[in-house]
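Re: [ENG-882] Designed sequences occasionally contain unexpected residues at chain ends

Forwarding the minimal case from QA. Structure tokens:
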């Protein structure tokens, strides 16, 4: 068992890496509200870019709603407010005046958007309405905070859609799942989609699909979710459209949300004892160039290194020249911790031979690339690194998943899969006795499954996954 697989070690390792890699600064004087450092923000911005690409390509429009929501709007959907009551921040004063209507800092934007959707949606021609925003949301987290994974000010993506029918809304959930598979591919991140239990679904949702990924300690981290609301929100917010027969109908709605936990998941999933390994697509720097000086050649080597950096940048590769006055070994160490996928070295010998030396961060493999085709060579290796990171992460996820048939001997540090009859009593009994959470049944449903409920032994129509969670 590697040291990361032990729970306490993983938690310490994670916080240590976030700090040493310079991804986030937690010294800001509000607990759980961390500062995005340049390196961390670059990585997050790259993730956001892929999210925007996917949403734009599927005809969602980007919007930006106000941060504050009046209490009157916030309380319209009764389950929603119950779900968020204990974790929202209130604004009670404007200057010296107490506000007549208190304002909530958005914990999510349903209640900000839906009064406006009621104005925007008039006829069936306005549907589907598909919008998204990438903003910060605020949730008063009471458990121990942890950078990117459990914070109180959360960098958040949320899409909201309105449809004429339940089936159209269902089609949106399927489109969300397809977008997710492409986005997660860029992050080299495998995941499970599970339909959450009734007691764990989003407040106000008809159903919720949770997106979970497994960390090296065997705990799962929820990195996002998709919700089908049916008309649960459109009724209280009166979002209606006029159909072809001039009848007014409530829209069916969905949402899809993911957060900075994506970056937390990347940090947890791709790493070794030397530090982080950034997936090439989101790495702030895909390549670091280290000039190797020997006696009297520093001007020539530095010039060659600069040209190399410019050459790669010109070809759209994010390259960083490390020309600090430090020994190559200490530079290697710094960039290994920060997870730069590919290191290039250039010295007097390489210049003479017209090559560049490389070292892969993931496998440690070393070799040379012809200087004349360095862009092509780098791209090829970055592609290989992405594939191998994905393979490695899939193998790790696979190794953490275990089928179990009895409540005796549920293994530690695993995601377990078993039959469940679907009744709440059995579900709660499992969760309480095992101190685990039922993640849910597979989405889409597993065809041809047959099994028995692990608690009561009755026929189970679907398996469920259960795990301890981060
Ligand atoms: Zn049962």
């Amino acid at each position: 068992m590697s040291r990361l697989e032990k729970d306490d070690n993983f938690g310490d390792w994670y916080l240590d890496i976030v700090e040493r890699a310079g991804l986030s600064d937690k010294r800001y004087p509000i607990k759980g509200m961390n500062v995005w450092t340049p390196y961390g923000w670059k990585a997050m911005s790259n993730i956001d870019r892929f999210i925007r690409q996917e949403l734009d390509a599927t005809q969602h429009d980007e919007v930006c709603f106000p941060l504050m929501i009046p209490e009157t709007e916030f309380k319209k959907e009764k389950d929603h407010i119950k779900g968020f009551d204990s974790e929202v921040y209130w604004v009670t004063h404007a200057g010296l005046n107490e506000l007549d209507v208190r304002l909530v800092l958005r914990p999510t934007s349903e209640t900000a958007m839906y009064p406006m959707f009621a104005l925007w949606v008039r006829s069936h021609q306005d549907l589907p309405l598909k919008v998204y925003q990438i903003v910060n949301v605020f949730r008063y987290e009471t458990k121990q905070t942890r950078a990117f994974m459990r914070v109180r000010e959360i960098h958040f993506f949320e899409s909201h859609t309105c449809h004429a029918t339940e089936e159209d809304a269902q089609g949106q959930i399927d489109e969300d799942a397809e977008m997710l598979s492409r986005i997660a591919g860029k992050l080299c991140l495998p995941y499970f989609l599970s339909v959450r239990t009734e007691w764990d679904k989003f407040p106000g949702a008809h159903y919720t699909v949770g997106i979970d990924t497994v960390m090296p300690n065997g705990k799962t981290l929820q990195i996002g979710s998709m919700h089908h609301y049916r008309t649960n929100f459109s009724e209280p917010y009166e979002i209606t459209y006029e159909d072809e027969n001039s009848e007014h109908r409530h829209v069916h709605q969905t949402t899809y949300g993911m957060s900075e936990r994506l970056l937390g998941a990347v940090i947890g999933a791709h790493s070794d004892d030397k530090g982080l390994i950034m997936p090439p697509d989101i790495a702030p720097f895909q390549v670091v160039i280290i000039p190797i000086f020997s006696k009297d050649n520093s001007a020539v080597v530095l010039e060659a290194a600069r040209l190399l950096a410019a050459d790669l940048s010109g070809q759209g590769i994010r390259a960083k020249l490390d020309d600090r006055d430090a020994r190559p070994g200490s530079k290697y160490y710094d960039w290994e911790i920060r997870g730069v996928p590919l290191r290039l070295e250039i010295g007097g010998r390489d210049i003479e031979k017209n090559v560049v030396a490389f070292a892969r961060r993931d496998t440690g493999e070393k070799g040379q690339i012809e200087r004349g085709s360095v862009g092509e060579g780098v791209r090829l290796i970055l592609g290989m690194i992405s594939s191998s990171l994905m393979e490695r992460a899939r193998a790790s996820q696979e190794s953490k998943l275990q089928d179990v048939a009895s409540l005796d001997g549920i293994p530690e540090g695993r995601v377990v899969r078993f039959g469940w009859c679907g009744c709440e009593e059995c579900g709660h009994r499992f969760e309480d006795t095992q101190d685990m959470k039922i993640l849910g049944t597979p989405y889409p449903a597993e065809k041809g499954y047959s099994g028995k409920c692990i608690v009561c032994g009755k026929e189970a129509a679907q398996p469920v996954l259960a795990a301890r969670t981060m």
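QA comment: On inspection the terminal residues look reasonable. The mean pLDDT is 95. Proposing we downgrade this to a documentation issue.
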